[in-house]
Amino acid sequence: MSGAESSGGERSDVDGIDRTPVADADVCVVGAGPAGALVADRLAGDRDVVVLDAGPRFDPDDRVARQERAIRPSYGRPDVWDVGGERDAHESAGDRFYPLNHARVKGVGGSTLHWQGMVMRLHEDDFNSGSERGVGPDWPIDYADLRPYYAAAERELGVAGASDNPYAPPREEPHPMPPFEPSYSDSLFAEACESLGIDMHSVPNARNSEPYEGRSPCVGYGTCQPVCPSGAKYDATVHVERAEERGATVIDRAPVERLEHDGDDRVTAAVYATPDGEQHRQEADAFVVAAGGVETPRLLLLSASDRYPDGLANGSGHVGEFFMDHLFAGAGGTLDEPTRQNHVGFYTSACDQFYDEANAEQAPFKLEFFNYAGPSPVESALSGDDWGDSLRDRLRSEYGNHVAMGGLVEQRPDADSRVTLADDRTDDRGNPVPRIEWTVGDRALDTIERANEIQVSILEELGADVEWVAGPDATGPAYHHMGTTRMSDDPDRGVVDADCRTHDLDNCWIASSSVFPTSGAMNPTLTIAALALRVADDVDARLSRRT
Hints:
single chain, alpha/beta, seven-stranded antiparallel beta sheet, five-stranded parallel beta sheet, 25% helix, FAD, P2Ox-like, oxidoreductase
């Protein structure tokens, strides 16, 4: 660490932006992704809120240029959002390599800048996995506790969906927008699934099927992951900007290097760096760490002190442990007819029929019917060296007849799957980088085989020539970082309580999928958003009681 420390009064304006601390802040939020943005927006106006984010603000006018990067084979996915280098360095260890930088964005908006936008609620049994399935702990909250916050999160993000999924948990109101129509290839899958007695249903999307909150409806760019130029797909800049309009201060390029605390077990300041080489101390009455499932435990471990030698809020010893991700299961091939792929950059139909069959031996899993199988015409054209008629003929032969399915499988929580600090590698500020030890158990691998069996049976019923299967040996992560600061009523078994407030520090909350005790097999962002809104309400209530 380098640079002088200050707690206000000096400008930090290497690029003309004031990054000095905010005086008399009520709440300091670390991270401007979806959780941090929602907390800031919920509290702004009534509270003085400051948000610190390690990455930059991205100009929305640059999104078309980023889309062009995304469709060119010469660019890797991290290049689209300027990920990489010493700032984003990490180490991977354990049973499986974890490609952390492949799917994270460090900047205002966070991972929602490049996510696909699928927003499902966890099932009721996901909150009681230990009791109902014999795997992992029960959450200290249940579905009923989060149900009103799920509804609020759907309104905040803007979710298009229907109530046609007979396997989904109970709802209290329709989705804010109507669902997207099933795609052309969904209609092909539907015939095969009907023959096999497999149910298909629509998928809730955090993208606009019609104008919503001043944002455009989806216009079909097809590059949703990793960039939506139209703004139809939700990203956290929506709530960052709204929070700023309501009085919040958002400071970008301000990586928090440690949290300081006093003798009363209260966090007193977030120490952050700025591009000019200075360090500053942001003081506040309450702190919300919303830096994701990897950077959140890293920050707590970097904040070790004499009182907390193993890391801040780590009296249980569990900070960084139980790192989980969803495992991918998939299969695909070709048909002797057009399938109209890559017209839609997200999937519009899924199957949760087998989800609640989960037990100690089989993990919950869901199936997805893809609309983007095979190469896009642009990708094919830019990766070849032919021209004219030859190019045209090759594109016709390569594009449009692919078909594929995907699926997500739950990983059992395992203390040996964890995030720690690297021993001998540092970032651009001289701080140890995160070291990920990713361990996957037999339950998940066996469940992938089960998902593959169903996927192949559907493709064969469809008449497809099955050309690939992503089974246990070829599986990879869905880049859903969960579990590293788990929630528990017992301070010896978790890092935060049922309100996501740390057991060890009474003015520090964690808003992140890192608090998930188990992961389920549903994309986590809607649950992150619901928990963030719940955290904001708890912060506000406790601040009110103090005054």
